[in-house]
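To: structure desk
From: M.T.
Subject: fold request, one chain
Message: Could you run this one when you get a chance? Sequence is below, nothing fancy, just the single chain.
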Amino acid sequence: MRVLGLMSGTSADGIDAVLVDFKGDPLKPKWKILNTFSYLYPSSTREKIIQVGQGLKINSKNWLELAEEITELNAYAARSCDPESTAEVVGCHGQTLFHRSVEKSKRGGSLQILLGPLLANILNQIVIYDFRSKDIASGGHGAPLVALVDEALCGRLHGWRGVLNLGGIANLTIIPPKTGIDKTSECLGWDCGPANSLIDLAIQERTNSSLMFDQNGSIASSGVPKLEVIDKWLRDTFFHLEPPRSTGREQFGFQDLQKRKKDLGDISKEDLISTLTTFTASIISQDLENLFRLKNISLIELLVAGGGARNKFLMRQLQKQCCGIHVRLINEIGIPSQYREALVFATLSWWNLLGKKINPKSITGANKSILYGVRVDP
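Reply: Done. Structure tokens follow.
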């Protein structure tokens, strides 16, 4: 079956599209990427998305127009990736504007903006969208949904395997081994904390938006990280919550950056970016240490995906801090890093058409098996 997946993540830099052919067992599929396309949001659109996500109040007319614009841009990305409309179904995540993690007295919540019926009619194709609300209604966090699919796409090794996504937020998937006493274990997954969200905001602030991110980690490489401050930050309560856990820009956005800058005092741009980038690697390292301490799970491999995988300084920090783990790019096993999340939502859409439910308990915390996504026909 041909499926088109569309994804825009917390970084809100644009839309990734991937056309995939799936065959065979849904949990161990044979799949082939037929085409990819990436569309960068206009700077005005990206700015509006980030500002609204950080609490900017807009009126109902502007909400509707933003939803229409994002839907039309997804349609453009879909047509560019699959000009002949060969896909039997289009899976579209939409643009996240707000995420609320589960707390003791409060259910989780997640708002993805997209007009699914409009997209289906523009494309004249079946569309699967709204992937998170059923999970949240069932007591889950609604995130990280990529962890539901990683095992099917990446497969198992003879030891525990990790998949790390470095988008705006970092999330981890932990895949059990295919042999030995742990082979009956469940796949685990959770949001770790900030990956690029604080780094990108700091770069934009310090360069008056002439730069949007730290290309190749070159600015971070020129600085010296403040390790004593990072050690203090790593004691934040969120980083010691047991999974399942989720987060977003609401927690690790502009206001959080201002607090961390205050902790650092008057330092150079290079030292600031170096500290924030090292902080991201340290969060991952601490999570993996806690995983070993609490569950006696030790990874033999960590596959890295997302925009942060192109940050050479961040990758060096991960390799340095994750001792004894083979850290490498997910591209090396045939999954293009940039399109990994679009591939995930293509897979979830294929599963939706097949009627394939998934038990997300050990990843999102939802209390029942779920058929992810809502189907709308043109």
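Reply (cont.): The chain has two domains: 2-145+339-376, 147-333. Let me know if you need anything else for the meeting.
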